[in-house]
Request: fold
Amino acid sequence: MQTEHHEVAILGSGPAGLTAAIYAARARLDTIVFEGPQPGGQLTITTEVENFPGFEHGIQGPELMDILRRQAQRFGARCLYETITRVDFHQYPFLLWSDAGTLYSAEAVIIATGASARRLGVPGEAEYMGYGISACATCDGFFFRDQHVYVIGGGDTAMEEALFLTRFARQVTIIHRRREFRASKIMQERVRSHPKIDFLLDTVVEEFLGEQRNGVRRLTHIRVRNVVTGEQRILPVDGVFVAIGHQPNTELFRGFLQIDEQGYIVTQPRSTHTTLPGVFACGDVQDKVYRQAVTAAGSGCMAAIDAERWLEARRHSQGMVAQRRTEASD
Reply:
């Protein structure tokens, strides 16, 4: 199989991957971006984005990602609607196989495959995601000012989302399938003492229901079931936040890189260097704390700069070795 070679290969096309592409391409590096199974990343399923700097009145998620893509392409980055399905980081240059049946090699790899919000997998969830259902209170809480919203989950993430939402919502109800929470005691105490938060325990959501008006979908109700009594109810909702965790998209890299117990790629402090020289990670694939579009973009910038400097240092080192060999042979 013939190999197509590039200096920098970027896996993923969310804010991290495309920002990395902008910086790498501007540095005159031969850059290729594999857009992956969800081109544009999680922002493509987000409607209004109001917290990305530079857009005073907000911007639609898909539009923002299209702007970033075109900006990267303007500087020479090549974007492919392909997904890397296999890698071999034991060889150098690094090898990557795509779902199009093409083998690629790269001198540096930037991993920006992101993380996927865990979902309930019940009817209506996919249909109303971004239309009343969210997986990020920091991103979307503002849109639910003075409304009654529900948070699904029982860990620290759910508690943090609920507390954050009290800044905007009139009332926040936490739905959890058990009576006990997995969250830390201090988080539970904060939530239980908050006057805006109440609970719907021993309960699961079985279906999301909504309507379509003037061509716009909107979540309006949820069907819930009490796991102890079996009783089912349909409740009116203004919004629902699914907070059962995120799953970093890192399975492809196990055996090559250090990955922590939660599945995130481990990077060196204050850098995007992974445990393997020449491979870098940015965005939600290594960020378990912030998970914002702007922080992902910032780490994409870091990854491109780290990769550029690493390549330059490697080439300088190789040049010095070659010079010494020449001098030794004269």
